[in-house]
Write a structure and sequence with these properties.
two-stranded parallel ribbon, alpha/beta, 121 residues, single chain
Length: 121
């Protein structure tokens, strides 16, 4: 009789115990740096070079999951392209005046080719 009671108690406990599950998505992107261009050609040169990098157009997604018997946690972090843009501005604006000149844009083109991470055209 005690075995039957223990088995029933165990079955009821298992049936009533729930699984704790949580899922979250976090959008993580920095604010885009403010920059101006000395001429239209400087801006066009910068943006054409920047567009050659696949990182400039894509979002980066990172997922983390923890699965235990009664606990399921899932977190997803999405980072936008502003971080890559800010790094490109920092690399391009050699005198740090927040104005990209034609010379700086031309140097950015050469330095990006040296990095060798441009997608093939």
């Amino acid at each position: 009789m005690q075995k039957l009671f223990a088995t029933c108690a165990l079955a009821i406990s298992a049936a009533l115990s729930g699984c704790i599950s949580t899922s979250s998505t976090k959008y993580n992107d920095v604010e885009r740096s403010t920059v101006s261009f000395e001429t239209e050609k400087a801006g066009r040169t910068f943006y054409e070079t920047l567009s050659q990098f696949p990182e400039a157009q894509t979002r980066q997604t990172e997922s983390t999951s923890v699965n235990l018997i009664v606990l399921n946690l899932h977190q997803k972090t999405i980072s936008g392209p502003n971080r890559f843009f800010n790094q490109a501005i920092e690399l391009c604006d050699t005198n740090k005046d927040k104005v990209i000149s034609e010379t700086e844009a031309d140097i950015f083109v050469v330095s990006s080719k040296a990095l060798g991470t441009k997608k093939s055209t």
